[in-house]
Amino acid sequence: LATLIHQSRPPADPDCLTPEPPASQKPPVPGDSSATANVRGSRATVGAALLKDGGVHLEEMGLALRLLVAFGLTFVLGFERQLRGSPAGDRTFSLIGVATAVIGALSANNAPNALAGAVTGIGFIGGGLVFHQAMRHRQVVQGVTTAAAIFAAAAIGAASGEGNFVLAAVATGLVLIALEIRYVPGLRVLDARRWAPRFTPDDEYTPPTTPRS
Predict the structure, then answer these.
(1) DSSP 32
(2) φ, ψ at 211 (rounded to 5°)
(3) How far apart are CA 107 and CA 115, in angstroms?
(4) Cα 87 to Cα 98: distance, rounded to the nearest angstrom
(5) CA-based nearest residue to 164, from 113, 107, 80, 211
(6) Residues 203, 204, 205, 208, Cα dihedral to 10°
(7) With contact defined as beta carbons under 8 Å apart, do 90 and 149 qualify?
(8) What Cα–Cα distance (Å) separates residue 188 from each residue in 12, 69, 81, 90, 178?
(9) How many CB atoms are closer than 10 A to CB 154?
(10) For 26, which DSSP code?
């Protein structure tokens, strides 16, 4: 009877059979250490890629913040100079601040010679301002304060470019105090021009003569 039932069954259709998936596509079996290691390895790779991309974006945002800080601080100095009638105002100071911030960022990334070249260039700009004032007013000393302020703005921009925000902010405050010392009521007591008439200038000083014996 068993033999007759077996012979009466139709043969299996090979097209209806479900192929067995390859070993790489099989779902991980609970407790299989190799499958767990593969999953962990893939997650670690994806996580490393995300951290790398995030680090690049954070670094770019940090550089942009440095430039913005340098622009803001030096713009304030230039704004003060332009209010006082200086030929170099907010645009000149902010351009110098941003430029030196870029050079400061490059100097922080193993390019120290770039900052040294920037200092030389700022010296030429300051010298040009001094000579320009001398041609107009026939006084060589005109423009020295603005030239010194430009040099300070370059240093502030470089400090911001290297990420020293506290140093740049404190330097900006001190430079503003030095520039506005004769205009702020509480600081006028420190202005040397207020006390200058009480002292004899060096050009007018004559040493006392000793009587001959």
Answers:
(1) -
(2) -65, 145
(3) 6
(4) 19
(5) 107
(6) 140
(7) no
(8) 107, 30, 18, 25, 11
(9) 28
(10) S
Query: 137-189 pLDDT, tens per residue?
Result: 555 567 788 889 999 999 999 999 989 999 999 999 999 999 998 888 888 88
| Count of positions (residues) in the chain | 213
User: Quick one: which of 151, 119, 139, 144 has its CA closest to 129?
Assistant: 144
Please tell me what DSSP assigns to residue 54.
Answer: H
| Residue 92: C-alpha distances to residues 32, 49, 167 (Å) | 68, 42, 22
- State the Cα–Cα distance between residues 140 and 124, nearest whole angstrom: 16
- Give Cβ neighbours of residue 127 (< 8 Å, ≥ 6 apart): 147
In three-state form (DSSP H/G/I as H, E/B as E, the rest C), the secondary structure along 62-74 is HHHHHHHHHHHHH
